[in-house]
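User: Please run a holo structure prediction.
Assistant: Happy to. Please share the sequence and the ligand.
User: Here you go; the ligand is zinc ion.
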Amino acid sequence: MNWCMRIGLLAGLLTTALAPAGQGQAVVRGADDRFKADILVVVAHPDDEGAVTPYLARSIYDLHKRVAVVYGTHGGSGANNYGREHAAGLGDIREMEARESCTRLGIKNVWFLEGKDTASQNVLNSLANWGHGANLEKLVELIRLTRPDVVITSLPGIFIGENHGDHQAAGVLATEAFDLAGNPVMFPSQLAGASAHREIYLENLEAWQVKKLYYFPDANDEKQFSGAGPAYSIWEVSPSQKKPYWRIALEAATTHLTQYPEDIERIQKMSDAEAQKMMRDPDTAWWTDPETLVFGKSFFLTKATDDVFANLEGEPNRCLELSAKVQRPSAGTTVKLGGPWGYYQSFREAHCLGSLRVPDPPEIAVMAGSQVYVPLVILHGTNKALNLQLRVEVPKGWKVTSGEGEIDLPAESSSELRVEVQTPALTVSELKGNTPQEIIVHALVDGVSAGDIQLRVQLRSHALPQ
Ligand SMILES: [Zn+2]
């Protein structure tokens, strides 16, 4: 007998769901408690977990909560700042760095989806490159396996900040999975009971409704989220670990050597006083204090700022606030921002996220000297062909390169367009103190306004492609 057969036979004996328990008695095994989580963290890349590790340290060490983490990608498309390995090889290393970081926080249950690290600010690019459907199915399965009360993930939205499309994609998938995992008709083969002695298709998991969803932002200005959810001090000293939560989080982050080896080396040489000084200075601190978890939604009625673990049962939330918060296009021809902005408007409506904070006017940061594009959707109001005029106002020194003027639109209910603007290539010193500026698109049909679109754009020396 070869080893595969031996292992197969042994596995067959061990995995029988109906196990004999004495004479004439049988026991149906329950869900595997080793994998039950209180919090499931869903992030895009190895090291993204670091955004919430001060709160995770609090919940693991002092609230005795069980935490599991799902990474959307292996993070293989970034630069290797430590060794020579790149691409998939770098992804293999980053998986280990992430696992080691989680282990330091007492997190053992860590999974990776099959998303591809995508360098762009557009969540739709990430969703396309990740394989949205297959990874969503996998995430729903992991929720059904880990049965968390709370999911914490990246904020799906567009902000001046790193604004990584993959971070947003993690937030999109987690939000979708929140709504799907409890629905028994979604991915039913995950729920179907074993029908054969050695079942190889049906998973025998249980439909699971996560109770609460929180986000952490990828924006430069985290203070804008103050009051948008519960806030936790990163300076509070852990009663069990006798050190502040930021310190525990910082120590866990030092495994990510392929990402920021110089910072890690510097931090490891710091005295306690020097590390405290670094964390007190808003320009060098790794976390904003207090750390706000942006409230996404709750299955039961709760207030946004209530504690993460408050109201895990009670009166179901029927999403009543929604219609007041989401703007619907009026009758007649109207223009709205398209692309990821248009998608997010529908996303917030579909997932009952009407009270989520959204920059007004919409905003983005791009690299100085790059093109910025303004995606537009023209809602015809009828199915008739239209003659549209677009007039674009740009800041001094910026240039409209396409999309302006008179445009004939076909007979359809909505048309997608884009305006492209060339931004000036400013030097680092010219960019100092630079504030966001506005692009305004005026849309007219037969000389009558169909609305204006504003986009606030900040120029930077470096930014991911829009
Ligand atoms: Zn990341």
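Residues 72 and 379 are 34 Å apart (CA to CA).
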